[in-house]
Inverse folding.
């Protein structure tokens, strides 16, 4: 009977990017000792879309439809941070009614985000029922979004100085009804989940983050507040009109996965309180600051300028971003969502740097899962609450930098050889010019050192000159034979490992032998050009080949015959 052997070495397992519990295209390279996690390396970059560079080539209004793809479960927050940055840069005031509408939409988006966190999180640890329950309330939130903005997920609702449209008739009453209904739904979740012994066994004491760790890692949102730090940007920065409402910051002190669950459940209840107060006290007035339509930049394009010739219409007017910089942040459902903006007296941002909470919070994952069980990875990862749309930003650049560092050892000698050749050619020209008592070529670069490069570039961009009365085919094939013979010479040089010549003498002889075919190509070109001067040039090259290259080839042949045949 064959007894299976027990393996004692470590095992490396790939989790993702195609995994039902990855919450996106995240790949984890996990090193296991049985069921114990020894190491974990997150691999990003499967969803990189260059959102920052897109922002630097768009106006703010043009860029607004893009931002909802950062965190596609909390889209109102990405729109809010996009318009808050230029508002603060340009000192634009937001009407009171617009600020109240923004708060209502933000808190509804926070509830929708937490609901879609709760369902998959419970499914990750084996509870499927809450995953179906959360869609009841989430669909009601999306119904409210659709009635106000026209879209269920990607809204494009926020504008600089306000919002795109006012709340429709009857929307406030419908939202108040939702708030009353949702409070009963949260109570149902708490009864179903919070004291469930199986749930507590999976989350209690798993993924503990201390106070100092949370601060040192730069965590924010529920990840930070679950570790005992009462830090909420709605209270700290007092943006919009949050300081006018009565609500409390939800926090826990244990720092484990259960604490992060309790913080998010409590935040949904507090969001309902804020929405109810905002709906009851929403003031009248405009929903947009119309003064910003008096744009700083006034354009009167002429009949034949760039706008008419290439855009075919007058572009929509927009204001310039003043030449200054600032950092703006909001309290998103996953943590601090910030944007670092640099204006350059242009309609496009000079720099648009995004600070996503998911990317910052994810970096602590390898430390949390070490010395834990394999099944705890899904619990800890789910409690962090990530969205790969905002996480996937930098790994692509990391890959590019890695490729650059691989090419540096190859490009460095090539660059050195090129510079050396240019210097030698320049010196040769200067010496020839001195012998002939004339000034050497000093047109391109300092002291004419780049003249050889300029001549080669000029030659490449010239027309394809063919002789009118010569042999066109022979004239065209000749240069190819001359160049190919030199390139083929490298194929027969006896290289060893790491591209080192195994025999220097044989390498040099063989290279000279093969490259001696090049004058034959020159002879073909000279003959085919039907020009006596070109033909004389080919004869001179052939004479040079006969004078020393062919004898060297014969010596090489004799050497090879003696070494390989007679031995």
């Amino acid at each position: 009977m064959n007894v299976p052997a027990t393996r004692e070495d470590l095992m490396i397992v790939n989790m993702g990017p195609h995994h039902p519990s990855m919450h996106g295209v995240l790949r984890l390279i996990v090193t296991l000792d049985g069921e114990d996690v020894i190491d974990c390396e997150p691999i990003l970059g499967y969803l990189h879309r260059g959102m920052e560079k897109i922002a630097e080539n768009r106006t703010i209004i043009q860029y607004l439809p893009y931002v909802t793809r950062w965190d596609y479960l909390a889209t109102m927050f990405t729109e809010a941070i996009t318009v808050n940055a230029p508002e603060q840069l340009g000192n634009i005031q937001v009407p009171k009614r617009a600020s109240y509408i923004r708060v209502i939409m933000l808190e509804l988006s926070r509830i929708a985000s937490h609901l879609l966190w709760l369902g998959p999180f419970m499914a990750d640890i084996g509870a499927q029922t809450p995953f179906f329950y959360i869609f009841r309330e989430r669909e009601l939130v999306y119904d409210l979004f659709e009635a106000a903005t026209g879209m269920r997920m990607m809204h494009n609702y926020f504008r600089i100085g306000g919002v795109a449209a006012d709340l429709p008739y009857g929307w406030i009453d419908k939202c108040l009804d939702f708030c009353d209904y949702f409070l009963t739904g949260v109570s149902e979740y708490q009864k179903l989940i919070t004291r469930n012994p199986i749930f507590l066994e999976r989350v209690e004491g798993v993924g503990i983050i201390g106070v100092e760790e949370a601060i040192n890692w730069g965590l924010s949102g529920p990840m930070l507040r679950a570790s005992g730090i009462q830090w909420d940007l709605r209270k700290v920065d007092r943006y919009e009109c949050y300081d006018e409402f009565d609500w409390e910051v939800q926090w826990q002190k244990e720092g484990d996965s259960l604490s992060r669950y309790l913080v998010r459940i409590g935040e949904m209840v507090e969001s309902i309180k804020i929405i109810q107060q905002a709906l009851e006290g929403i003031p009248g007035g405009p929903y947009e600051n119309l003064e910003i339509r008096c744009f700083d930049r006034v354009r009167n394009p002429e009949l034949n300028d760039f706008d008419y010739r290439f855009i075919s219409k007058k572009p929509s007017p927009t204001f310039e971003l003043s030449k200054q910089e600032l950092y703006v942040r909001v309290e998103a459902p996953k943590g601090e969502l910030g944007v670092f903006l640099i204006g350059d007296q242009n309609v496009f941002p000079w720099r648009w740097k995004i600070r996503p909470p998911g990317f910052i919070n994810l970096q602590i994952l390898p430390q949390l899962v070490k010395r834990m069980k394999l099944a705890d990875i899904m619990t800890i990862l789910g409690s962090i609450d990530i969205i790969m749309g905002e996480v996937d930003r930098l790994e692509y650049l990391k890959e590019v930098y890695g490729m650059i560092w691989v090419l540096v050892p190859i490009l460095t000698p090539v660059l050195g050889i090129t510079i050396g050749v240019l210097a030698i050619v320049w010196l040769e020209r200067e010496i020839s010019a001195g012998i002939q008592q004339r000034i050497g070529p000093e047109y391109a670069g300092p002291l004419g050192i780049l003249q050889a490069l300029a001549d080669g570039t000029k030659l490449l961009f010239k027309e394809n000159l063919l002789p009118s009365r010569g042999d066109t085919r022979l004239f065209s094939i000749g240069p190819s034979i001359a160049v190919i013979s030199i390139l083929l010479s490298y194929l027969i040089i006896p290289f060893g490992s790491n591209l080192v010549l195994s025999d220097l003498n044989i390498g040099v002889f063989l290279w000279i032998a093969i490259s001696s075919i090049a004058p034959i190509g020159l002879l073909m070109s000279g003959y085919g050009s039907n020009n006596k001067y070109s033909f004389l040039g080919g004869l001179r090259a052939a004479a040079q080949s006969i004078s020393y290259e062919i004898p060297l080839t014969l010596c090489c042949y004799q050497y090879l015959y003696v070494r390989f045949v007679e031995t």
In short: Residues 307-315 have pLDDT under 50 and may be disordered. The radius of gyration is 36 Å. Residues 227 and 374 are 23 Å apart (CA to CA). The first helix runs from residue 51 to 55.
